[in-house]
Amino acid sequence: MRPNLARHALVTAAALGLALTTAPTVAHAESLPNTNAPVKVGLTVQGPNGLLFKGKIKTKGHDVTTATGGTHKCDGTNGSAYPTAVPTPTAALDDAAKKKNFTWDGTWYASFDDFSVDTIKNVSGGGSAYWSISVNGTPTPVGGCQFKLNAGDQVAFTWTSF
């Protein structure tokens, strides 16, 4: 009788182990929301001599193309920041530029898996300044293609000298 009890315990443990390893995957896959749903954010571009752009823009993460940097994803999956695509500040800048017909350019840095914004509306950061990115008044701790935006966020690209 003991061998049957041991076999029953082993089969039960194996079944339980299989259930525990597959259940979270199935539940997780079903519970993932559309994280890249378009969101409306406020966008401000402040140059050295004043406001260059201010408005609301609807955005989501997408591929971005610049003259200097080429075409690369800019959807929050950069640098493995998020497991699925999300709206980002640089994607919002790109959408605003397309919608409001102004230019911007950025260098792509493969080591950071992100763009560095170099010029907006022909205003360059140059050797003594750069374009800083903040969301809701706080500088982003990561690049503009790695920071997740939420509806209503206030995004600012500010020409900053050093």
Q: Which key terms come to mind for this protein?
A:
disordered N terminus, 10 strands, alpha+beta, five-stranded mixed β-sheet, 38% strand, 162 residues
What does this structure look like?
It is globular and about 40 Å long. The longest helix has 30 residues, at 2-31. It has helices at 2-31, 89-100; strands at 39-47, 50-59, 62-66, 70-74, 104-109, 114-120, 123-124, 129-135, 138-139, 154-161. The protein has 162 residues and is an alpha+beta fold. The strands form three sheets. The chain has a five-stranded mixed β-sheet with strand order 2-1-10-8-9. Strands 5-6-7 form a three-stranded antiparallel β-sheet, covered by helices on one side. Strands 3-4 form a two-stranded antiparallel sheet. It contains two helices and ten strands; from the N terminus they run H-E-E-E-E-H-E-E-E-E-E-E. The protein is 26% helix and 38% strand.
Secondary structure: helix percent: 25-40%
- Order of H and E elements: HEEEEHEEEEEE
- Work out the number of β strands: 10
Largest sheet: 5 strands, mixed
Q: What's the N-to-C terminus distance?
A: 81 Å
Strand order of the biggest β-sheet: 2-1-10-8-9
How much beta, percentage-wise?
35-45%
Q: Indicate the overall shape.
A: globular
Low-pLDDT windows of residues: 1-31
Number of helices: 2
Q: Output mean pLDDT.
A: 84
Rg: 23 Å
Overall structural class, as computed from helix and strand content, comes to alpha+beta
